[in-house]
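seq/struct pair 1
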Amino acid sequence: MKSHEEKKFKIGNRLFSSRLIVGTGKYKNFDETKKCIEASGAEIVTLAIRRTNLGQNPKELNLLDFVPPEKYTLLPNTAGCYTAEDAVRTLRLARELLNGHRLVKLEVLGNKDTLYPNVVETLKAAEKLVAEDFEVMVYTSDDPIIATELEKIGCVAIMPLGSLIGSGMGLLNPLNLRIIIEQAAVPVIIDAGVGTASDAAIAMELGSDAVLVNTAIAAANDPILMATAMSQGVISGHNAFLAGRMPRKKYTGSPSSPIEGIISE
């Protein structure tokens, strides 16, 4: 059995070694953003097109000077979009700003308080984007039926929530997440709700292909140290999944040391 370090995962036609994807929002400044991304070891970095300067405002700092496209795979997202139309328009803009970039993260929100996804609008947007030759990684609810429909449309990765965006509540519905993981033929990436490294480890132990984390790193007392911890949690959880846990035994115990050859009275 290969270890975590030996097993890469594939999104579309791209291979990645790191199974931790990080965001660029909520940091104190771009310098902290850069240091946290480096500490995380992430290869994919997501950014909100509607909230980030990528050169469209020459008088402001450009995120790309701190997160260079030649070093990282950028994943423009549609954070802040509440309709399919807005989401599609935003990612068309991202493609222009990033010189024809096709790999994108789609998210269409349904409620400004909970930031829960609007799956109806998400399905509409996914169909349009796939038809326009985007490679769509899609944020969605933990509904296995919706996940299957998004895969049928042609999305290259399904990204169900662990809990609400920015909540830090961890994985509230692991059974549904496991169903999605077991049914999917494309990568499944747990997105939203991860609060600490143990949550990331649990996500990987379920069999997910990767974890996306932003707020849990940016809002930590020591963001750089938390970025390191998240990387370690993902590696540990994935190795545990590859190793295979021992069976659960409800009503019996078993000594951890051999009983043969013990000194008897």
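seq/struct pair 2
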Amino acid sequence: MLDLIKWFFATPIGYLVLVLLESLAILVPLLIGVAMLTYVERKVLAAIQLRKGPNVVGPFGLLQPFADAIKMMMKEVVIPTGANRFLFLLAPLLTFTLAMMAWAVMPVGAGWVVADINVGLLYLFAISSLGVYGIVIAGWSSNSKYPLLGALRSAAQMVSYEVSMGFVLVCVLLCVGSLNLSDIVRAQEHLWFFIPLLPMFVVFVISALAETNRAPFDLPEGESEIVAGFMVEYSSMPFGLFFLGEYANMFLMSGLITTLFLGGWLGPFGLWPALGPLWFFLKLCLCLFWFLWARATFPRFRYDQLMRLGWKVFLPLSLVWLVVTATALMVFGWLPNA
């Protein structure tokens, strides 16, 4: 029986089934986690603000995300007059799908990855950069000036901080000498990168807030100027997909921070290596808590402050630290594969 199973998975159809099962093993927990993160956020914000949070639907309010999902699905999908119907419905689907696709190369444990490709870091950067298309398409296809203004603000914000994030990724690449995410994790076996690359770690963590349009950088949703940003014309499940896409991007950025700077599936001081996926999950939760804590703690930035921070602070700092990192690696002979 075992030989028959091995033979089946060696065939092209079997390989396709295997990839599908691996994808489901990543996507199903991720989708459940995205849904429950909405509950966790409301509970964390309530605790910080001395409130109770969701506590009615189900025990401790645990069924609140599912009640919200049912409510979304039962509402009518309203498409504005004059809107491009195809693009209007494509935009939220594109945003959510891209956030899911990125997890194909994210290693959650030793060998626990759907596609362990040699250009995984480049793939992730490309996927995160494509996310801006969903926002721009949503703003333009709504046939309204307010979503368009919100989309332009959001696109400018995301592009601005992607530049600094790109230099951070180059710093990590210099230290590892590989674009493979599993190799990046293994390179941190003795020292996690957030220690030698602390300034880049800080830049990346703050840029992740701006990249996901989270507070204090939630500028597209400036109620006093542009109503609710690029999604103001959306209702029902298209709005729900944008909502879930934001939380899925929080998962993605937290996974990226964990992989690049916090040792991925590696435990602290090499403790319990067999618990690799558990270590990854705990670090992911820690990064997600940072997103929630920042929302409840820091005041909202003005748009000019946001742009000044990205272009006049983070960009020069990341460039300088990139040169410092390259110089140190050259001087001390620490360049990989040298």
